[in-house]
Structure formats: structure tokens, C-alpha cells
Design goal:
Barwin-like endoglucanases; 4 domains; 19 strands; homodimer
């Protein structure tokens, strides 16, 4: 602190690009001797607003003591922040204190257990999209909502607010189909089979996907092994018009962008509350223009949903919000006792999907069966398909090779990958400690190992399951193989395995948990 | 992503100081072409661990594209991070992925509404102290605990864990007194009067204070107007031995450091939950070696505690945790209907305190009365003081000038300020809209205005109350004056006033709310 009289600095600052990559966080650099810094009482790490020519961004302030980075007449911006402003170096620029987000008052009311209004959620989604929230503030919103819980009208308000935070596609057709699984089951890549089958039938299914939040691979992460998934809204439209479907990431399309920002906090914190999940899924689907939606809720002892009671509650919530938004929504409850298919991680899951599409006799039967049943239910959205006939139509499309042809067409249209991702070459195997039958596979633990091994960031990392539920194993026989691309990840995964065990349970045939769902 | 084979980089990196001030957040800078960066699969903004010579710190990674900041053989550290490592530039240094804090599992269980164990709280406090938590993760812990609530045993565990996170003073005396107000009442600077009075009596009162969390001034912020408050543990000990008291900030003394880190997140989020409050207060007091503690809970319509029922619950919680920790703890419930004294903000509150110490006829009577009563209760901890005599002893000490002499001695010993902080020169007044009697003053709103005006960061900023509860006012007469040091803050405060009103209610004498507390 000093006693300098407050002054309005006369000379404006000029913009400089600082060649530091700070990813999703904008950083502004001011020299400690800069007149504005001294006059306006800024502090390192405080949030500032930067304006020039009508453009405006928020950034975190770092104070510089080295004039070769920025001098006292310059304002530096990190690479991504500089790009957002779209101005040349040397442009005159203004900096001011950023006001805290106004809707933090609503977040505080939520912390106190209050119910929030539609207006509150709108303000929160808007300010999040506008990057007015720090990660800490978003964490407060997410944890407060997850814990106090959102009632079904609040979930509806949040969903609407997230839809309104971005663009909304209109396909100008009466039937725009989509499907979504709530997640928690590793290897569950049914979308990459359902979309080609449904699109091959001619039904419009412009599926947009999220990246993984807490799982070792999302559909977008996996499809990226084969093709470009970051499409512009224009490219996406063009693709869907021609192909009747797509397998693209929703984020770049500016659909429900508030959701993407929130996911960047949910992911490291491992938050996955029912209300936020329903809002996140339905906001993306409504923004993407879906009219008919199939939701898959897997149930099992290590799935996200562990009891039928809980699955039914979640189904009611999906139905309430979906109906209120004018969606035609169906929920099916599926077998979530173990991972689907054999691979866990983008490259391995792509292998499984391609085996099913190619009618390879080695293809994992559970992935094929589940995908056909889901595709069948989606096809029955078509008024011309009789109830109960969907499955047979789906199987015909798959067996005839029309689904494979459609996948190849989608890959070609989205943009095939030039380089192939290799499977991680650093491996170890986990062996059966005794002879018996596999009576349990922990979804959560296998997913964690695949993540520790580097998935989904490293496409070739993951877990390859060599034995599934009910299969007989001999002592010393391998249960699964872990693949990593980098030494550090290999060590992490291995240490995790040593600490937490294999995730497999070996016992007798009668100990295999019973199947208590539709299929 | 590329297909480079994983390699263990042969040449170690060398340390470089990057002249960027990132305050409480350690930042590490790696060049994009650095072999380690490529081989180990780091990402911008990911958390890394940096090791050299047994020392170890955590930092957030920024990726640099300019070799003049760091080249591909260097690892750069921001100024504070560099200092923590205590190594020369050019030292060889290692970087690795930082594991996420293990105790986040406990935080997730708390989010799910579970009760945490003593071991959980110990792990959380330890990892927070070790800087393993990001701000986002701390926000998750705080919000989850605030919302699910902590039961009284959890509060006890958290308190113990925070005490164990740092050093603990032992004064080797049977009676070590302290006092603390839970806050929420602007201008309530009684500690700066109670400590000189009690220390002048000869009772040991090594008061350590926090800085403001959500208020416009804490005792540490205000005492800093007169003297140094950042003392080393050695200096603090020396001072207390000679003076029988002190008015220092607890943070630098490494007392319950986990609490200081948490406060840096609570403050911007405005979290102030009962369990965390009790744990924070008692951990600091126990770590500071207190054996006898007086807690002041103000109650009023705009105080933190609004109803007597709530005050009694809080008192029980203080008593339970205090007794379990072996503290002799007394709670008194006081008048929290309006700010105490006239000034709000460090410089203004210092003026009020000095007027009381100097027996100035202009001194605010409420501040004097409350301080004497609190000091009286503390003095009664002395077995030689009869119950009921404390107040008279306190008044004698104040009126005789012995309290002022003690304050001067404390200032001289802690280190008097060389430069004086001036009162903010940019001012505006808020005037009475009608003639009548002041029937309400909103503590919360007045505190917000003082904060908007720049307090406590700008010592001279704040609000000077010209009328208090029950006083008659004429239309147009000023109710209070707002002082700011910087233009931006002045604009903020004024805009806030325009949006939210004055915070004063004018009515008739019979509308003044009744006093329903001890004094």
C-alpha cells in the first residue's frame, strides 16, 4: 500500500501476446511498475476484465517483474486469451476489475438449501457461458446442487437454461431420433453401432456425443480413433443431411455450452449427481434438435445405478423433464453387471465395434446383442414399424453389411484419421489367483485402471478383458491385460492394481449375480 | 498425440526463476519442445510435482512457446514457487505427474451425505496444508461440509485435525486467556480494547487474529494500521513474555495452517457455516495455547445469528468441542442489532479504538461498554477475581490510562508502522430520505458497502456512521459517509448503494427493535 493519490492513467496500454499456453484459463500479464496496476489496486490472481473495440474477455491477473515478458506500457495475454480477443499486437486496450458473477447470490441460496427459480438458473447458465465463473465458483454451484439435490422442476429449469445458453439446431423433420446411455459401464460403445444401423434404415439420428467425464472413454473420444469429431455447426448439418446420421462431439457445435464448461469442473471432481446428469443429457439432446430419445440406464452392483428402485426414480425424472420439454422419450433399464464387450479405452473399444460391424465371429456377443436391442427400440419410433419388429430389422441391417457401409460412409464424411493410433505397447497382465468361475467384475475399478493407464487422453491406453462373468478360469490364467503408452501412467495403473486388487471375483457358478433387467 | 515411443529423458532439467508473481498459486513453466513434456504426456493446467534435493512442491503447469521465458532444457517456476524450493537457478530438477489428493475420496463421501471419521479429517487437513488440493477441490470440501452439515463429533475431528496440521504453542502457564467474536457485526473491534485491558491486569492473553473472511475488517487487518502483525513464532513468543499480550495475525505463526488455506477459498465464495466456523476458531485458539476462552455471539435481525434459539445451538456446539479439547470456554450472547462504534474499515475502526483508549469524550459509548463487559468476563477467569467484579476492574484499567499505555507498548513491541494509512479521500454521503428515528441498520449491507469501497485491502476505505439506532434524524441529514481510495472501488460502492438502498430504516421511536440479550 502507498499513499499515491488515485489517478486515471492517461496513456492506454498496448496489447502483447505472451507465448504461454494456459489452456482453458485466460491469464493477463501486467508489469508491477505499470501505472494502471498501481493506481487501480489490482492484486495478483484477481479477476480482471479486458476490453478493446467492443470485445471483452475475463482473465486472471499475473504480475510480471521482467520487462522482456511485458513492459510497463503493455498488457500481455496468454495464447488462448489473445486469440479470443482477435486483435493485433500493439492494439490499445483497457483493463478493469471484473465484478464477481451476480448469480453467485443464487449459488449461495442453493448452499443454504433453497429452491432456485427458472430465472436463477438462467442467470447462472448465462454467466458460466460468459466465463464469469471461476472454477472454484463452479465447484460451489455443482457441489451445492449435487448435495441439496435439485427437485424435478429445478432440473427442468437448469435444462432449459443450458439449452438457451447456446445454439439450437432445427432439422425441419418430424422425427429426429437420438439415444443416450447414462454411463458407468466401461466398453459400452453401443452408439457406434446404433447410429449406423438407424441411419442405414433412413431414420434421422444426428447423434452428438460428450467426451468422457469420469469414464475411460466417451463415444466422442472413441469415434475420434476413426474420424474427426470436432465439426463446425455447418459441417455437422451438411453431414447429417447426406448421411442421416453422425457421430460427432457436441462441444464445438456450441450446443448447450454451459454444460461443457461445467463438465470441465465435474470431471476432475468426479461429480455425477442425478439432477445435473439429467439436465446435461437432455439439454444437449434438445439443443441438437432431437424429437425422439431413447435413454439407457444400466443397473448392477457396480454400475452408477445399483438398485431397481433407484433406476425407476431416475426414469421418472427423465420422463418428467423430457415430457415438459416436448420430447418423445423412452427409458430402458439394461444389464450393468459388468463391462460390455472386451476392450476398455478408445482404441480397444473401436476394435470391438468394428468386429461387430464386420460380423467377425470373434466379435463380443454382448455388445452385438445390446446394440441390436437398443437400435430396435429406436427403429420403433418410426410409425411404420410395428411394436416388437425393431430388433429383427436392426439385425438384418447389421448382418447384411449395411451398418458397416454406413459407418464407413460416416468416417469418410466426418474426415478419416490420417495417422492411426497404436495400442499402448507397455503392458502387464493380471492373472487368476485361483481356479473357478468369474462371479464379479467391478465396473468402477476396471474403469479406474484404464484411466490410470492413460485413457481417454492416450487413445491406445486401456484394459483388454480376457474373461467375462460366468466364464471358467484356471489359476494363473490371465484375466485381463493393461495397455499404457507412457511410463508414468504404467506405473500409476500398476500401483493402483497393487493397492486395490484386480476388480475380479472368482467363485462358483451359482455365485454369479442374477440378471434382473429387461435384457 | 503422437506415436513417439515413451522414453525416460536422460538429461535432467535445470531450474529457472520466472519473474511472474502468481500469488498463492505455484506455476511451473515448461517449453513445448521439452523432452519431458513430450514423453510424459503432460497437459497445460495439469498439476505437477517438482522435486530436487529432497524438497518437493506442487504446481500448475503452463506450456511456453518462447525460449526467452524458458528453453527446452529448463523448468521455470513463478516467484513464490521458486522461493519455496530454496534452490539456486541452474540446479538440476525433476518433474512428475502429481497424484490427485487421496482424501478426495472422503470429500466425495461427504458430498454423498456420509459422516467422516477422525482419520478422514486428518488426511484432508494434512493434504490441504501440503498444497495437494486445488481451489476447486477445496471448494468441494467446504460446500459439501457446509451443506450436509458436520455433526458435533465431526466438528471436533476437524478442529483436532487443523490443530495437528501446524505448530502448537505452549506458554507453560496455567491460565492463558483469549477471546473471540464470531463476527458479522461491522466495527466490532473489542479485541483491540480487551487485550490491552487484560494484559495490563497481568493476565496472559496472547491473542492471535485472523484476517477478514467476509467482513470489511478483521482484528489483524485493523491492528495493521498501527503496527506490524506478521510476526515470526519467535518474535510472538518474545513479545508475549514481555507484554503479557499481543495483537498479531495467526497465519504467519503456522498455527492451524490448514485453516488459512481454507479461508483463502471461503473468502471469495462467502462460505461461513457453523461447523467450519467453530472448528476454525477453536483450532486457532488451541494451537495458540489458550486454556481459557471467551466467545462472543452477537444476535440481531441482520447479524450472523438472528434468533436466540440459533445462538443457543451454536453455544452448545462451542461448549461440546471446547470441553472435549480441554478448554475452559465461556460463551456470551451480545447485542448484534447494529454495527458497534462508528467506523467500518481498518483506518476508521482504529480511530474509534484509540478514542476509547484515550478516554476521548467523542469515543463511541457502545464500543467502550461492550469492551469493558467482555474484558470483565475474561478477568473473572482469574481465580482471585470474585464473580461480578471483573467489569469494575476493567473500567479502572481503562479510565486510569493503563490500557492505553499497554496498547502503546504492544505497538512499539510489534513494530510501529512507518507510513500512516490515510483515510480514503474519495467520498460520498447517504442522506436521510425523511425525518424520523433510525429504527434499523443493516449490518450485512453496510459491511458490503465498506468492502465494495475497498476494505479491508485498502486500509483507508470504509464507512463512517453518523447516526445510530434510536437517534433522531432530519430529512436530508447525512446518515453515513463512504470513503474510497480508488476510483474503481468508489464506482462499485456507489452502484451497489444505488441498487440496494442505504441499509438504514427510518421510522418512529417505538419501532426500534428490542434488546433481548445479556447486554
Amino acid at each position: 500500500m502507498d499513499e499515491t493519490k488515485p489517478t486515471s492513467p492517461a496513456a492506454p496500454l498496448t496489447l502483447r501476446r505472451v507465448a504461454i499456453d494456459t489452456y482453458r484459463e485466460n491469464v493477463a500479464y501486467l508489469h508491477r511498475d505499470c501505472a494502471v496496476y498501481r493506481a487501480e489496486g489490482f492484486q495478483a490472481l484477481s479477476k480482471v476484465e479486458i476490453c478493446a473495440n467492443g470485445a471483452r474477455i475475463l482473465a486472471v491477473l499475473n504480475v510480471v517483474d521482467d520487462a522482456s515478458i511485458v513492459d510497463e506500457h503493455q498488457l500481455g495475454l496468454s495464447e488462448q486469451a489473445f486469440e479470443q480477443l482477435r486483435l493485433a499486437e500493439g492494439s490499445p486496450i483497457q483493463i478493469d476489475h471484473a465484478e464477481p458473477p451476480r448469480s453467485m447470490d443464487a449459488v449461495r441460496r442453493k448452499m443454504a438449501g433453497e429452491r432456485l427459480s427458472a430465472e436463477d438458473f438462467r442467470a447462472i447458465a448465462f454467466e458460466i457461458t460468459d466465463h464469469r465463473y471461476s472454477k472454484m465458483e463452479m465447484a460451489a454451484f455443482l457441489v451445492a446442487s449435487a448435495q441439496a439435490g435439485l427437485d424435478r422442476d429445478e432440473v427442468l429449469h437448469l435444462t432449459r437454461a443450458m439449452v438457451e445458453s447456446g445454439e439450437r439446431l432445427d432439422w425441419q423433420e418430424d422425427l429426429v431420433a437420438d439415444k443416450h446411455c447414462i454411463g458407468g459401464i466401461p466398453g459400452n460403445r453401443t452408439s457406434m453401432l446404433v447410429v449406423p444401423i438407424v441411419a442405414a434404415h433412413g431414420m434421422l439420428i444426428p447423434k452428438t456425443s460428450s467426451r468422457a467425464i469420469t469414464s475411460p472413454a466417451g463415444t466422442a473420444d472413441t469415434m475420434e480413433v476413426l474420424a474427426e469429431v470436432n465439426l463446425t455447426p455447418e459441417a455437422l448439418h451438411e453431414l447429417v443431411r447426406h448421411q442421416r446420421g453422425c457421430l460427432a462431439w457436441g462441444g464445438t457445435a456450441r450446443l448447450a455450452p454451459a454444460d461443457d464448461v461445467l463438465i470441465s469442473v465435474e470431471r476432475p471432481l468426479g461429480i455425477d449427481a442425478p439432477g445435473q446428469m439429467v439436465a446435461s443429457i437432455l439439454a444437449k439432446k434438445v439443443a441438437a434438435g432431437a424429437t425422439h430419445l431413447l435413454i439407457d440406464i444400466p443397473v448392477g452392483p457396480t454400475a452408477k445405478v445399483r438398485h431397481m428402485r433407484e433406476a425407476l426414480q431416475l426414469r421418472k425424472l427423465f420422463e418428467y423433464v423430457g415430457d415438459s420439454l416436448g420430447l418423445h422419450l423412452e427409458v430402458i433399464i439394461t444389464d450393468g453387471r459388468q463391462p460390455i464387450g472386451r476392450g476398455i479405452g478408445p482404441v480397444l473399444e473401436t476394435r470391438d465395434v468394428m468386429q461387430v460391424l464386420e460380423n467377425d465371429p470373434q466379435a463380443p456377443a454382448d455388445l452385438r446383442q445390446k446394440s441390436l436391442r437398443l437400435a430396435g427400440r429406436v427403429l420403433e419410433f418410426d410409425p411404420d414399424v410395428r411394436g416388437g419388429q425393431g430388433y429383427d430389422i436392426a439385425r438384418d441391417i447389421l448382418d447384411s453389411g449395411r451398418a458397416l457401409a454406413k459407418m464407413n460412409a460416416l468416417v469418410a464424411a466426418q474426415g478419416p484419421r490420417r495417422e492411426r493410433y497404436a495400442l499402448g505397447e507397455i503392458t502387464y497382465e493380471i492373472n487368476a489367483p485361483q481356479t473357478g468361475v468369474v462371479t464379479g467384475i467391478d465396473n468402477f475399478l476396471l474403469a479406474r485402471i484404464a484411466r490410470m493407464a492413460g485413457a481417454p487422453m492416450d487413445k491406445g491406453a486401456g484394459v483388454d478383458l480376457l474373461k467375462k462373468l460366468g466364464e471358467a478360469v484356471k489359476q494363473g490364467e490371465p484375466l485381463y491385460r493393461v495397455h499404457a503408452q507412457f511410463n508414468a501412467d504404467f506405473k500409476f495403473a500398476r500401483a493402483f492394481n497393487e493397492e486395490h486388487g484386480s476388480g475380479y471375483r472368482i467363485g462358483t457358478a451359482d455365485e454369479v449375480p442374477k440378471l434382473y433387467v429387461e435384457f
